[in-house]
Specification:
The chain is mainly alpha-helical. It is built from eight helices and no strands. Helix 2 packs parallel to helix 7 and helix 4 runs antiparallel to helix 8. It is a multi-pass membrane protein.
Length: about 210
């Protein structure tokens, strides 16, 4: 990846899915990355919106085999999903940025934001394929989420330049803190947005 070549969201997301190691190492030496605000607006937000729009469209084509009272309103749940995923990006980014000093790594919110965004690409794809019928949709979605966890580790390692002994610590701490922030705010958003939660939850949380 040449230093003077502009970074574009869709080619970068596609490449990091199939060749994560070389792409992330090249990105680490790319030079100054866009600001964290630009990373969010140009990379994170388009991916989140695409994931939610496609998943809701597929659920419209292939409704889940659930009672109507256990299915949330598509618009309300779509708005909730965008906000919850955005909170997830922010929570993981803030966690990685503020915790990296504890693990003797260089600070930089733009690198933390890019690492989190690229690490979450498989999970956002998993949100789309989860709309396909069970068990294929759920199985593929779970595999992509596990891939996303591994990719987040590689992205944090490459873009934040951590030493070998500190990489797993930052990864685990980032996941724990980011997940806690997402759960707290995501659960509150579910109750605040009309239609985000179904009338009957059937023992599920509906927090994606």
């Amino acid at each position: 990846m040449k230093a003077d070549r502009p970074l574009r969201v869709w080619p970068l997301a596609a490449r990091v899915l199939v060749r994560p190691g070389p792409v992330l190492r090249s990105l680490a030496g790319h030079g100054p990355l866009p600001s964290w605000q630009a990373v969010f607006l140009r990379f994170s937000l388009p991916l989140v919106l695409t994931s939610v729009i496609l998943s809701q469209w597929l659920y419209g084509l292939m409704p889940p085999a659930l009672p109507p009272e256990s299915v949330p309103d598509p618009v309300g749940f779509g708005v909730y999903s965008v906000l919850a995923m955005t909170v997830g990006v922010a929570g993981l980014t803030l966690s990685a940025h503020y915790l990296v000093e504890l693990f003797q790594g260089p600070t930089g919110p733009e690198r933390a934001a890019m690492a989190v965004t690229l690490g979450l690409v498989p999970a956002w794809l998993g949100n789309v394929v989860a709309a396909f019928p069970w068990p294929w949709g759920n199985g593929l979605a779970l595999a992509l989420i596990l891939y996303s966890l591994a990719l987040l580790y590689v992205a944090l390692r490459e873009l934040l330049g951590l030493k070998r002994g500190n990489r797993i610590g930052l990864w685990a701490a980032t996941l724990f803190s980011g997940a806690f922030i997402t759960l707290v705010f995501g659960w509150a958003l579910m109750d605040l947005i009309p239609g985000a939660a179904p009338e009957l939850r059937l023992g599920t949380t509906w927090l994606i």
